[in-house]
Amino acid sequence: MNTVSKPVIPSPAPRSSRPEILAEEIIERLTYRIGKDAKVAKPHDWLTATILVVRDRIIDKWMASTREVYATGAKRVYYLSLEFLIGRLMRDAVSNLGLMEEVRDALASLGVDVNVIAGLEPDAALGNGGLGRLAACFMESMATVNVPAYGYGIRYVHGLFRQQLADGWQVELPENWLAHGNPWEFERRESSYEIGFGGSVEFITTHDDQPRYVWKPAERVIAAAFDTPAVGWRGKRVNTLRLWSAQPIDPILLDAFNAGDHIGALRESNKAESLTRVLYPADATPAGQELRLRQEFFFSSASLQDILRRHLQQYDDFTSLPDKVAIQLNDTHPAVSVAELVRLLCDVHGMDFEQAWEITRHTFSYTNHTLLPEALESWPVPLFERLLPRHMQIVYAINAKILLEARKTKNFSDSEIRSISLIEESGDRRVRMGNLAFIGSHSINGVSALHTDLMKVTVFADLHKLYPDRINNKTNGITPRRWLQQCNPSLTGLIREAIGDEFLDDAEKLRPLEAHASDPSFQQKFAAVKRANKVALSNLVASRMGVKLDPSAMFDIQIKRIHEYKRQLLNIIEAVALYDQIRSHPELDWVPRVKLFAGKAAPSYYNAKLIIKLINDVARTINNDPSVRGLLKVVFVPNYNVSLAEVMVPAADLSEQISTAGMEASGTGNMKFGLNGALTIGTLDGANVEMRDNVGEDNIVIFGLRADEVAKVRSDGHNPRAIIEGSRELSQALSAIGSGVFSPDDRNRYTALIDGIYSHDWFMVAADFDAYAQAQRDVDQIWINQSDWYTKTINNTARMGWFSSDRTIRQYANEIWRAG
Ligand code: GFP
After folding, report:
1. CA 304, CA 344: separation in Å to the nearest integer?
2. Residues 657 and 681: beta-carbon distance below 8 Å
């Protein structure tokens, strides 16, 4: 008998958060962890030391949250996303722990300004736009509403490129967020998995006479885990964001090295590491296709191996997987997971195909973020087959099963069969990842009511007919912690004064603010907060760009990825038309406006980059024209990222949400602006529709064709030339741009761009122009009556609570995951 009893390991003593204790600990970390004397410490050292102290206060809660799931057997949610657009973390963590004042005081006692060091934290820009930012908001909300969750993604060494402007053109520079190390993350060397590519598949019979397929990959890399804690509001729960980094199996080929081939000795190692080196931008060239598919498989396989390992450790077998595990596929990027889970269950764990397929389908759910056909991923069959030969077999096996079922049970016609097939047959044969994600999931959700309805009749019409119960809607949301409390502390303070603190825990409790919407003294305070935020943005613009803005002008802002369907072009053409009007009618009372733009264009997206150049060309002309008398300014603020959004959103008077109806799945910027007291000018697209329903028609300015009208115009045959000829303002603006008024150095620069509007106008710029211009003049009329303006904008803040991502996550948890 073993007489040695197990030692009782004590938990660390709870830590005090009194400022003097925090200050002591900061000095301690600075000295012993960073190895710096306080006398010579640089601001970055203070930042790291502070993060380490805050992090310790998170860890206790993190461990408790993890232990609790093991103890209770609660279901775990896994959010697989190729993108997490996190931004900075310190303010988020400190504020969610309720330690803002204590940390500020502790640092002040050491002569350090918290705002200065918080501003040094690099943005973790591991995403392109709304999709990645949604994943970051969801991580925070899952912890807030107490869902045991893991985010899984890639630890890109270089996040989204840094954007600079050179003579008004976008220039992409590498981003280096890890340059000073990353104090938030923990490397988990023990959690690493082998990931294979290429090679062949063998069919063997095991010693117990079981037939099995064995994939013999030609290449292997290691996926190593890096964990970052995700803290919920009031620090109640801490979840894990696990990001994978690729590492070589052999760091160096010593034989080659010793034979004098020093570069060749590192070739394998470089190849492995290049897998997770850069975030691959959306809409990029075919050249990067293979890398992108490799990234997708790499992180899917690593995540699934990790999920199965954890499940097996706790539950012994996989039949309980759908009861204990929910895996959400964020877009099609992780869709190869469907085939990978079947492979792992069958080939590695010996399950038969039918059972593996049932388990897979009940475990996955899929979120679609776009209806744009070009954005629905598909891979050339030869590429897929070469890189993932076993998965190709599984895709064919799934396809055979589903197509037979459709033919037999639903009598599907040939054309319906073609449209639900996992293999695209027209032109080059391709594997359709949208169909794979759909077929492999028990729930498929859109991200706004309109988008979900359109999914049913467009991209997934036939799959919806086959599985009518699977498509459902989960309208997006944003976390009010980052997008109100942290980015707009003055407004938060003002709201607390007016209606108390309940809204901090439940954003829908902002409603009582409605009672103050018409109160002149509250309006004055609201306006003062807005003005201070506009001054802050003006200071940023002055220091970065040397452009002076007048904070009493209307700040009219459009910030998001640059894309033709998002219609920055419509906005800038309207600015040109307004410029003409101001010059032709100096006698009228024009409302002074500053039109601000920010956003990045995918490096290979020529028209998007040209639109950036156009905005800058127009800005230069208008801003230097004395006859405008400062009534109109146009500014493109470079290097849009989460931190810049945190300054621009609170400073907006007018929010531009003007996509071609039917093309923006949801939008989430629209929600951020509304929450921070901006009026929206927008089309009935994406979540704008639900915003109108929530804030009321009087509190939003809607214009333009609706989604069904856009579809009709397109199918009936659109004649943009006739429309342009019928609109004096539009035709003048287009001919000014097209003929080189704004580009005297290259008169033909915009000819093709403008010709596109004349010839097909796919994005309905001409079709919507007059309605948009009229809506802008309506906005001016509201602005002139400032009391009316603030009634509307206060109502926006009051009624935006439903768009909290806490609500969205509760719906996912109750209706899809059945967890939490
Ligand atoms: C995409 C869609 C948006 C949607 C987000 C999140 O984001 O309409 O709001 O995903 O669901 F297009 P972007 O990359 O366009 O920002």
Report:
1. 8
2. yes
Mutate to test the pocket of ligand 1, among 562, 600, 668 (most ligand atoms within 8 A of CB): 668
- Indicate whether 12 pLDDT > 90: no
For ligand 1, whether the C-beta of 488 sits within 6 Å is no
Q: How far is the CA of 668 from the centre of ligand 1 (A)?
A: 7
Three-state SS at 204: strand
Cβ(371) – ligand 1 distance below 6 Å:
no
Mean pLDDT of the chain: 96
Type of residue numbered 96? N
Residues 6+ positions from 469 with CB-CB distance below 8 Å? none
Which residues contact residue 240 at a Cβ distance below 8 angstroms, ignoring those fewer than 6 apart? 62, 66, 150, 151, 227, 228, 229, 230
Work out which ligand 1 atom sits closest to the CA atom of 476: 11
118: nearest Cα among 129, 105, 104: 104
pLDDT band at 77 (very low <50, low <70, confident <90, very high): very high
Residue 210: predicted pLDDT: 75
Over residues 372-400, the mean pLDDT reads 94
State the CB neighbour count (10 A cutoff) for residue 464: 19
State if residue 476 touches ligand 1 by the CB under 6 angstroms criterion. yes
* Residue 225 bridge partners (DSSP): 188, 244
> Best mutation site among 333, 366, 369 for ligand 1, i.e. most ligand atoms within 8 A of its Cβ?
369
Angstrom distance (rounded) from CA 285 to CA 290: 11
For atom 10 of ligand 1, which residue has the closest CA?
131
662: Cβ below 6 Å to ligand 1? no
% of the chain at pLDDT higher than 90? 92
CA atoms within 13 Å, Cβ hemisphere of 747: 3
Three-state DSSP class for residue 111: coil
What is the pLDDT averaged over residues 454-464? 97
**pLDDT value for 205:** 83
Is residue 566 among the annotated active site residues? Answer: yes
Calculate how far, in angstroms, residue 377's C-alpha sits from the geometric centre of ligand 1.
Answer: 15
Confidence at 191, pLDDT banded by 50, 70, 90: confident
Sign of the dihedral defined by the CA atoms of residues 534, 540, 543, 546, in that order: negative
- What interface predicted TM-score (ipTM) does this complex get? 0.90
Average of per-residue pLDDT across 354-363: 98
298-311: pLDDT as tens digits: 999 999 999 999 99
Assess whether the C-beta atom of 369 lies below 6 angstroms from ligand 1: yes
Residue 343, pLDDT above cutoff 90: yes
C-alpha–C-alpha distance, residues 795 and 818, integer Å? 34
Structure tokens at 296: 């997708």
* Active site annotation includes 672: yes
Of 386, 393, 374, 273, the closest CA to residue 332 belongs to: 374
Ligand 1 pocket residue status of 77, Cβ below 6 Å: no
Q: Given this model, what pLDDT does residue 9 score?
A: 82
Q: Determine the average pLDDT of the residues in 310-315.
A: 96
Reported as half-sphere exposure (CB side, CA atoms, 13 A), residue 43 has a value of 10
Q: Can you give the length of the chain in residues?
A: 820
